[in-house]
Amino acid sequence: MSRLIAFLRAINVGGHTVTMESLRRHFEALGFQDVETFIASGNVIFTSESKNAGAVERKIESRLHATLGFEVRTFVRTDAELGAIARYQPFAPSRVQSARAFCVGFLGAPLDASAKKMLLSLQTEDDSLHAHGREVYWLSRNSQGESKFSNALLEKKLRVSSTFRGVNTVQKLAAKYGR
Predict the structure, then answer these.
(1) Within a 13 Å sphere around the CA of 34, how many CA atoms are in the beta-carbon half?
(2) What average pLDDT score do residues 125-146 get?
(3) Per-residue model confidence (pLDDT) at position 153
(4) 50 and 106: one domain?
(5) Which residue, 51, 82, 113, sits at the end of a domain?
(6) Is residue 116 over pLDDT 80?
(7) What is the mean pLDDT of residues 49-68?
(8) Which residue from 170, 160, 173 is spatially nearest to 108, judged by alpha carbons?
(9) Residue-wise over 13-25: b if at least 16 C-beta within 10 A, else e?
(10) Residue 112: which CATH number?
(11) What is the total count of domains within the chain?
(12) 2-11, 119-128, 130-139: segment of lowest average pLDDT
């Protein structure tokens, strides 16, 4: 059995409210085991016999769309991938310490060269961006709400779906569930 972590995009925004208990039941109905949620922002930890993350993502998205009535993009990582994401250091520690926001964006696939170039064009004096694997790392001197960069901007310009989590959340998840 593989331990997996699902990062759900916009599970409780736009007038939708899904309790974490309800979310656990949906995952259990899909046959996943050891289902837990981590803070009420769409982070679900579970075990699965499937090692195909793409198939697991599609299975979750299909179930949630059918039962909730709206699309919930899902990004699945293994516990080993989560550990590597949490340990990865794309920015100098001194820059991270002085930043007001440091987030990881989860993508469905790595960015190609053209998309990486577009991503870098979105950088500002206050916002630094870095792509690595299926993640985008965003460091800002401003809070997320004050920044010119956003998940919506990333999705619009790069034509990809994503969901962001604060690095602190990712590190806490990795400390509890990562390898």
Answers:
(1) 11
(2) 96
(3) 95
(4) no
(5) 82
(6) yes
(7) 93
(8) 160
(9) eeeeebebeebbe
(10) 3.30.70
(11) 2
(12) 2-11
Q: Rg for the chain (alpha carbons), in Å?
A: 16
- Is residue 111 within 8 Å of 47, Cβ to Cβ? no
Among residues 82, 116, 142, the one where a domain terminates is 82
Residue of 69 and 102 predicted with greater confidence: 102
SS3 at position 113: helix
Give the per-residue pLDDT at 19. Answer: 87
Cβ partners under 8 Å of residue 61, min gap 6: 71, 72, 73, 74
Look up tokens 């989860």; give the residue: 106
User: Looking at the structure, do residues 76 and 20 belong to the same domain, yes or no?
Assistant: yes
Does 46 share its domain with 27? yes
Which residue type sits at 48? S
Q: Are strands 127-132 and 135-140 parallel, antiparallel or unpaired?
A: antiparallel
Query: Stretch 82-87: mean pLDDT, rounded?
Result: 97
Secondary structure of residue 148 in the 3-state scheme: coil
Q: Domain range spanning residue 29? A: 2-82
What does the mean pLDDT of the chain come to? 94
